[in-house]
Design a protein that fits this description.
mainly alpha; two-stranded antiparallel sheet; 10 helices; globular
Amino acid sequence: MSGFEFGIQGSSNQRFAVDWANGNMIEIAQMQNRLPRTWDELAQPGSELATLLEQLPSGPVDLRRTLFEGLWTAYVCLEEIAMVAQQQREGAAPSIMADLRAALLASGRVLFTLLPDTAESRRVERATTVMAQEADSLHRLYKEADAYRKAGIVNLPPEAEVAESRRLAKEMLKYGRPPGDAKMLQDVATVSAQVLARERQDEATDIERHLLWIFNVGSGFAHGYGWPSLLWRVGSLPTNTPGDYMLTSILVHQAHRLVLEQAGIGLE
């Protein structure tokens, strides 16, 4: 991939977007390095996150693990794009757009979980929804555990652990299944747009549409559809990819900052 394709030699707006995102990546890497080595060390005693955990139901996946893995996913996916943007390696449109999609959704779910209460939604309710999503996804995997073992898949946990996870998942889901991916994505985009609107001093509605655009275009590439090739492109990438990269980097930056603050770790 040439530098021009990613905006490094493109218009002034494209260069600005790439430079901004690359600068964000430096700070994101520093914050990622401040996280503990394991997920179960994430919430410091007396922290805001520790208080939230006390108010949540038991589930098969601890919320700290969800946040920890969400930040890691967002970081490594965005880092892959940064290496292409900085011309340290080659990249292809499907992998770049799929990485953008993953970083967007992972960081968006972290923000959706931890942002303070609003008139429209309470943090405890949002965190419980995220836990229920994890429970539903894991339950669908584990209910076929015996069939997977017979097929020779050996990296499943022991049967007793699988059974306990399924029990906790059923308990969490007894009041109904969580919203599907489409509804969850809409909710994540709505909450995340409010954060970005304050960061960029833009209209939240416009940012929400932009976040949904990134996810939908990234999904098209990730699924190998033909329709992304109908979009206006520079080389193999949609023309607005530098802006998508910048917006996603802001989201990932804010997600890391929020976790460090609420976990009692701090930024310095």
